Amino acid sequence: MVTDVRGTAKNLAITQMEYIRNENYSHDAWYYTVSSSEEPSASPEPSWWAENPPSKLSEDYARYLVVAEAKNFDDERVGIRRIIVKVYRPDTNPDTDDLIIELESYEAER
C-alpha cells in the first residue's frame, strides 16, 4: 500500500513538472493547486494560465493534492527560477503534514 501511494505520488509530481516545463516561462513567481474535487486554482496566475490551465486530477486520484510553485532565487538571477511540486494525501501520515513527495527542478527562460 505505501509503495503504491508513493509511486502514484511520484507519477503525479513528474506529470505536473513536465506540464510546467512545457509551458512558456512566466516572469513572476506563482503558486497553484490541483485536485480531483475542485478546479485548479492559482495565486497569482502564471502568464500561460488563461490559455492552458492544468486539468483537474481524475477521480482515480481523489485522495491526492498537488501543489506547484515557481520561486525566484534570493539573489539577482534573471531568467531562471526554482520549480517545486509537492504531492499530499491527507490520510497517509499526519505527522508530516501529509506530504508524500517533493520534486524540485529549475526553469529557464527560453
SSE layout and pairing:
Layout: H1 2-22, E1 30-35, E2 41-42, E3 65-72, E4 80-88, E5 99-108
Antiparallel strand pairs: 1-2, 1-3, 3-4, 4-5
Short summary:
Helices cover 19% and strands 32% of the residues. It has 110 residues and is an alpha+beta fold.
Largest sheet: 5 strands, antiparallel
What is the CATH topology?
Pantoate--beta-alanine Ligase, Chain: A,domain 2
* Average pLDDT for all residues: 87
Assign an overall shape.
globular
Structure classification: alpha+beta
Strand tally, please?
5
Task: Indicate the proportion of strand residues.
Answer: 25-35%
Give start-end ranges of low-pLDDT stretches.
none
Provide the succession of SSEs.
HEEEEE
Oligomer: single chain
- Supply Rg: 14 Å
Instruction: Label the CATH architecture.
Output: 2-Layer Sandwich
Number of domains: 1
Spatial order of strands in the largest sheet: 2-1-3-4-5
List keywords for this structure.
single chain; 110 residues; alpha+beta; Pantoate--beta-alanine Ligase, Chain: A,domain 2; five-stranded antiparallel beta sheet; 1 helix; 32% strand; globular
What does this structure look like?
The chain has one domain (2-108): Pantoate--beta-alanine Ligase, Chain: A,domain 2 (2-Layer Sandwich), CATH 3.30.1300. It has one helix at 2-22, and strands at 30-35, 41-42, 65-72, 80-88, 99-108. 19% of the residues lie in helices and 32% in strands. 20% of the residues are buried. The mean pLDDT is 87. The termini are far apart. It is an alpha+beta fold and 110 residues long.
